[in-house]
Amino acid sequence: MKLHRIPFLVQKMIVEELGFDERLFLTIASKRTCSLIRKFKVDLDSISITVRTNEICVFVRKDLWDSITFSIPFHKCQMEHSSAWNIGGSIVRVRKAFRDIMEFSLNDDRFDTTRNAVTVFGILLRHLKSFSNIRKPMQCSFRTIPVGFIFALDCGFVFNNIEIQTTPIESVTPEELKVLLENVQTELLRLNVKVQSVHDYKYLRNPDKERSIYRLIIGNHSWVDFSELPAAKVISISKQIPLNQMNMVLKSWVAGRNRDMEIGDFEIGKFSDLNREIIFADVERHPSQITEKEIDAFFCQANNLPSRRFMGNIISVDILREGDGLRATVMETAHDTYPGSKLRRNHPNILPRTINMIYEIDRTTDDRRAALVLDAQKILILAWADRRIAKLQGLRT
């Protein structure tokens, strides 16, 4: 008896006993079996995507003992002993290279080989989504950026980690940057790219749309507009901003309306009294209103700051922002971050660190505030979102 004529409960029992590769084969065997498999979606443990210099690899794991790797090469191959699969109306050549590795290719002379690979990747990703549920967010790492690949990621999947770290740094278009920053949903985006025609792209804010990125770590920051940072809860800039650019960065940030930013780290190199006034030129400072509880709160939130218990007496100063009034607090202390000769003797590589300043910037239009933290190695901008403000205000009572 044919599978589609079996009673529904029996169909369900049979399909649930199938392995992932068996389900995959049935989805391309015929439209009828494909429709049947899609009724009983398989739960996948994870999907990991790796873009290498010569291929795109998609590693799919159903469980610890059932996994398969799809290899999509950029170069044209003969694909001997291959089969033709009809996936979503496209004919894809497929062969089993090893026990758990399948090679995919689209032999279409209208596209170059890289474009072929990206097309096959998009077809495969959409097909996997049609008959599977993914328990964990997906992973994706880039060693190169094929033309059109970023647009293929905009498919409704939720990512845990997207890492774009190419050597040398590659360029993306403003349209590709828009997809990464506004459309793709990910917990962590590591972004080390150049941007073509950076002035053609501006961050678009949609108050009805939830934030799509939780943590954004930026490598090359030449494309960043510090007055309008992307909408991410935690923003870090991992590469050093030259000291002679810091005043420009601070003034553009102070002049902006970065409502979505909560924590941003800006590396500046060695900080001293000699260059303090240069960095803060034309940035007005006022007596601070920050409380000890609030200081403790953002030290607990920022993992890259030294432990609060190692800090001595802290002197605070405020910066008042004219346009939208965001407040940051800058603390200054001359105390050793790691006091005690015993610790220094047992750990000679630990150097003393001091927090030079923490400024507070106040927003005049509402009660939002940010903290601007400087130490001997870096400057941190800790801007509190509305929920964080409510929490901090609760600490005052």
UniProtKB/TrEMBL annotation:
PANTHER family: F-BOX ASSOCIATED DOMAIN-CONTAINING PROTEIN-RELATED (PTHR21503:SF8), F-BOX-CONTAINING HYPOTHETICAL PROTEIN C.ELEGANS (PTHR21503). This is F-box domain-containing protein. It comes from Caenorhabditis nigoni.
